[in-house]
Amino acid sequence: MLPLEGLRVIALEQAVAGPFCSRQLADLGADVIKVERPGEGDLARGYDGALDGVSAYFAWLNRGKRSVVLDLKSPQGVAALEGLLAGADVFVHNLLPGAVERLGFRWEDVRGRFPRLIWVSISGYGLSGSYAQKKAYDMLIQAEAGVISVTGSADEPAKVGISVADIASGLYAHSSILAALLKRGQTGLGDRIEISMFEALTEWMTPPIYSLIGQGRAPGRAGLRHNMIVPYGAYRCADGQVMFAVQNEREWVKFCADVLEQPDLASDERFVTNAQRLAWRSALETIIEAAFASLTRGEVSARLDQAGIASARVNSVQEVVDHPQLQDRQRWTQVQTPAGTIPALLPPHNIGSVSPRMGRVPALGEHTAEVLAELERAP
After folding, report:
1. 166 is catalytic
2. Which of 59, 71, 259, 282 is most exposed by smallest CB count within 10 Å?
3. How far apart are CA 57 and CA 46, in angstroms?
């Protein structure tokens, strides 16, 4: 039995944040009923056709769910949603600001009718404040939360290359739902969960914020180098780059002696603490790359491993697909889609006694008749 088996989730969702939250619940056994609009459905269905016509984002985010098409502009559609919520444990929604409220499903509207329901809003900026009605998408939240200001090279800012604001808010929604379920087990009552994408990312920005508060300056952009720890990042050698991280003073001493083969450098007054190394990073990084100039990546990596210094390759997407660790741990499996079978990575929950449910990616409205028939049979 999966941990969330028997839990029913109604997901009035689109794009990434809401679907990422509810897919975690589906993987762990919840019956997730995905409510989609007639015609186009979740807008993520149209992002691309990367997988024989199935969107890469949609395939990633929606396996194991049941797709139900409801016209929520009609009284019949709203009544059907009301009926679904009457038998639900969790209601996840991340439509545009005001949409759920206009339908009559604000927390204040439903808490009396469905006292055990856990009501989950995921929005750009939260449901109050001067930004509450502002549309929000991942890159825009990265900009507003300051992530772009600390990402990229010294010459040019960049966004994070994956949907980090959506993922952050989806994960906070997921963990909050689990906490609310535990609380409901004690009180018998549901609760209101309000997740803000902006607040999720500003929480993740706390180290740069604390640096500004404590030192009067925020960390600058450092490209493939860490902007608060030195040495940490990618450094040139004879045939490319090696990425590694020195995390403490013990490792710094080992790095100087065993990797650079310059043990006296560890006691150089410019470099004796991370704060000093950060202040003198240009001088230090010049020394490091001069020492690596005649060494291959393999030779530098061997020295790093011997010294116990953490290192990594800068992999391409193809190299990640082929990564030996994913093969060793048998992380690849398969799921069904309307276009056939596709590869999929097992979710990283890794609960010892649980095999996640890697359900089918649904076609638009595939389960409408089935779910509405269940609704008619409900007492």
Report:
1. yes
2. 282
3. 9
